[in-house]
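PROTEIN DESIGN WORKSHEET
SECTION A - STRUCTURE
LENGTH: 338
TOKENS:
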């Protein structure tokens, strides 16, 4: 077991991460993603998550030092988005350019998909032009259908079921803040949605203690809860499910929430009413550890899922999370396409 850049135990870190680009033997021994897709958190082993965090930290340092890092020179990323995006789109696009490559962006309404061309055919064609594809489909099933024709790696930039690179970037943010992940308690309070699923799975696989508080009607998918429990048991973490926000937040190192209505969901007054007691307030934050941070994937609705005083207060690290998206997207691109 080696010691990573922040001094915590990792399966792969220290010198190896700095040398693999130039050293084929180190590269072969490291858990890179070697042209694999990332569709959900279940596609990544714990060692791969650690490698991604290490690589993202390394790329972040290079950018902060102003060192060029054009490891993907000559590579092209195709981007296919069905929903709007500020962070994911920019992180992929700017990240690809900073790695020396190129990114092309297409909204799905611009494609022949609108005239009935199938998802697998679209993927087959795109795969002939680009080295990788970043996709944001409303329905995870459409992403799976798209994979039927894809012959290059595909990266899920959010579906209604998962948001894996968001969760990876959030782990990077926590790692940056606390110097490691194992043993940290993260409380997710609110809708058991895509972001909740991904955090629960990636956090559990990283040996964290994850607590989820949501109303039973809007709890995360039981099959994914079961999987997260198994991952937590393997990694020495735990998973607690409750409908009581106070119970989830007690002793937490991080309190996380997301919008109460996700993209593509019909506006539903019943859901908003059910989730109203799950708003993250200063009173709720006071149940967490005194140094606990507040997290949100953004965009946020102040005073709906989180009190503005928390969102804009000293414990909020939401903009660090957004900034770290860039570094994590670059790590995913590099380890898969490099
Ligand atoms: N958090 C997130 O994925 O933001 P965007 O929808 O702006 O990409
Ligand atoms: N759960 C939110 C996340 C947005 C980044 C949504 O799907 O709209």
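SECTION B - SEQUENCE
RESIDUE ASSIGNMENT:
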């Amino acid at each position: 077991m080696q010691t990573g850049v922040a001094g915590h135990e990792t399966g792969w870190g220290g010198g190896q991460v700095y040398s693999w680009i130039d050293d084929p033997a180190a590269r072969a021994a490291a858990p890179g993603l070697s042209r694999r897709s990332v569709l959900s958190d279940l596609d990544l082993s714990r060692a791969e998550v650690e490698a991604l965090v290490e690589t993202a930290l390394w790329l972040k340092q290079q950018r902060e030092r102003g060192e060029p890092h054009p490891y993907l020179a000559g590579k092209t990323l195709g981007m296919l988005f069905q929903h709007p995006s500020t962070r994911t789109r920019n992180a992929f696009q700017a990240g690809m350019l900073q790695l020396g490559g190129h990114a092309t962006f297409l909204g799905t309404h611009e494609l022949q998909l609108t005239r009935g061309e199938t998802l697998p055919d679209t993927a087959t064609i795109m795969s002939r032009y680009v080295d990788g594809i970043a996709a944001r489909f409303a329905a995870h099933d459409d992403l799976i259908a798209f994979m039927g024709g894809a012959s290059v790696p595909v990266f899920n930039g959010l579906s209604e079921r998962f948001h894996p690179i968001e969760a990876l970037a959030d782990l990077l943010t926590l790692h940056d803040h606390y110097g490691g992940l194992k043993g940290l308690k993260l409380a997710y309070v609110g809708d058991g949605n895509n972001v909740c699923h991904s955090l629960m799975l990636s956090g559990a696989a990283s040996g964290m203690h994850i607590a989820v508080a949501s109303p039973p009607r809007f709890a995360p998918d039981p099959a994914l809860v079961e999987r997260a429990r198994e991952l937590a048991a393997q990694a020495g973490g735990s998973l607690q499910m409750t409908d009581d926000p106070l119970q989830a937040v007690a002793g937490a190192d991080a309190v996380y929430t997301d919008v109460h209505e996700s993209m593509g969901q019909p506006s539903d007054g019943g859901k908003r009413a059910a989730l109203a007691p799950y708003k993250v307030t200063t009173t709720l934050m006071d149940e967490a550890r005194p140094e606990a941070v507040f997290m949100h994937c953004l965009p946020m609705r102040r005073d709906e899922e989180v009190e503005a005083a928390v969102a804009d207060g000293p414990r909020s690290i939401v903009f660090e999370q957004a900034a770290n998206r860039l570094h994590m997207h670059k790590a995913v691109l590099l380890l898969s396409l490099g």
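SECTION C - NOTES
The chain is about 40% helix and 15% strand.
Residues 85-88, 158, 166, 297-298 surround phosphoric acid mono(formamide)ester (ligand 1) (CB under 6 Å).
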